[in-house]
Inverse folding.
């Protein structure tokens, strides 16, 4: 199997803080197992991983670097950390990092199922976030939209 080309190649793996510095634990969430492209496993983005099972990952202790280093925004507290905002419950996954060198912030919000980006709680968070920051949305249908602080792009909903 050959991995399909990404429309916008994203460095979605960034240096992650030590596990004990994350705000939240994954629990039985496996949203990243669906979302991530995992080169070491020849797994394309948005396809279920062969090692994914209910309640977690079958190879978690031996997972590849792409999985081990993934930096989930919910775990880091970059989106609301209430349990109903866990990616597998809200239907969106935040990925953010600061580019080095240069220090430019990059934020992406991935829709895990159709319509999740139109959820009123997500729309409210986007309205707050885009007051000061740009964010790129990746819809489940494969389309992309960038929201900018000047309000020139409409927030979904």
């Amino acid at each position: 199997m050959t991995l399909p080309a990404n429309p916008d190649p994203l460095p979605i793996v960034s240096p992650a803080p030590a596990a004990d510095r994350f705000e939240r634990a994954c629990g039985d969430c496996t949203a990243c197992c669906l979302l991530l492209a995992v080169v070491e496993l020849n797994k394309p983005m948005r396809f279920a991983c062969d090692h994914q099972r209910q309640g977690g990952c079958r190879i978690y202790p031996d997972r590849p670097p792409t999985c081990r280093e993934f930096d989930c925004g919910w775990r880091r507290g970059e989106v609301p950390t209430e349990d109903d905002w866990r990616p597998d419950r809200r239907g969106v996954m935040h990925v953010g990092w600061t580019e080095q060198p240069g220090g430019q912030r990059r934020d992406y919000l991935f829709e895990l199922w159709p319509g999740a980006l139109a959820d009123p709680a997500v729309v409210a968070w986007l309205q707050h976030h885009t007051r000061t920051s740009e964010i790129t949305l990746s819809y489940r249908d494969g389309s992309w939209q960038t929201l900018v602080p000047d309000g020139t792009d409409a927030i979904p909903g």
About this structure: The first helix runs from residue 31 to 35. Residues 1-20 have pLDDT under 50 and may be disordered.
